[in-house]
Amino acid sequence: MKKKATVNNTFVCQVRMQAIRDAMSVLSGKWKFHILGTLIEGDKLGFMDLLREVDGIGTKMLSKELQDLEINHLVSRTVMNTKPITVEYAITEQGKTLSTVIEELANWGIEYRKSILDTK
Amino acid sequence: MKKKATVNNTFVCQVRMQAIRDAMSVLSGKWKFHILGTLIEGDKLGFMDLLREVDGIGTKMLSKELQDLEINHLVSRTVMNTKPITVEYAITEQGKTLSTVIEELANWGIEYRKSILDTK
DNA sequence: GATATCTGTTTCCTTTTGGAAAGTAGTTTC
DNA sequence: GAAACTACTTTCCAAAAGGAAACAGATATC
């Protein structure tokens, strides 16, 4: 299975491929876009808030995904010293740069659904 | 684990959630963005062309992903009656509507990589 | 006739992902 | 002091995703 790139083997394409890999490595999975989208809308949400907002997610996945997003500097985590301890999750400046991507993706999804319903 | 949505339980947010689910159901996996991106650049590529262009993919995944994309009307498949049989894969009009999303994602990936290198 | 090319499919396996449920731990209200 | 609330973690398991390699069928070239 030897391979020689022939068509898109330009520098820009290699860079774009790498960029998509980079982006997906940080955004892959079933929940990241939902969590980020929710945090972009209403900033500063507690764990239980997110559990309520992100429809269908469980504690394990929410916890794990939030850790991933925090590691990648897209979400911040702040422990508040309130009566029953609460934690505030918020989108970072870095994370906010994703809002156009998420917006575009959501818009595409809406249009896609429409076009599918038309053809049926 | 009772849940009551309190913050983003508006109609637009429900629609956006659904839109992201729709989009991801069609675009999930390791290779779809790469294949679509490649087909948007150079239209009409053979199976072997794609195998060469999409760095790292194997025959099984390429075959499977192309089938998925064809089912969802994002890619067209045309069998040519050439000497050794060849097949032309191309992006559909429907598929072309993804170009802005892919563009945004790639741009974000590029900027993200830059910012990570800066902070290190 | 052997080898090569094009387009896949099939098999077998490992890794990754995701989910349900129970457990942990601290605080606070009744 | 029992129950409730917040914020998780852990365990155990099932399903999905992904990959390497072999196989297959058709034509065409050496």
From TrEMBL, chains A, B:
Its name, as the record gives it, is Transcriptional regulator, HxlR family
User: Organism, per UniProt?
Assistant: Wenyingzhuangia marina
Listed InterPro entries: HTH_HxlR (IPR002577), WH-like_DNA-bd_sf (IPR036388), WH_DNA-bd_sf (IPR036390)
Q: Which residues form the HTH hxlR-type domain?
A: 13-117
One annotated GO molecular function is: DNA binding
Instruction: Could you list this entry's UniProt keywords, alphabetically sorted.
Output: DNA-binding, Transcription, Transcription regulation
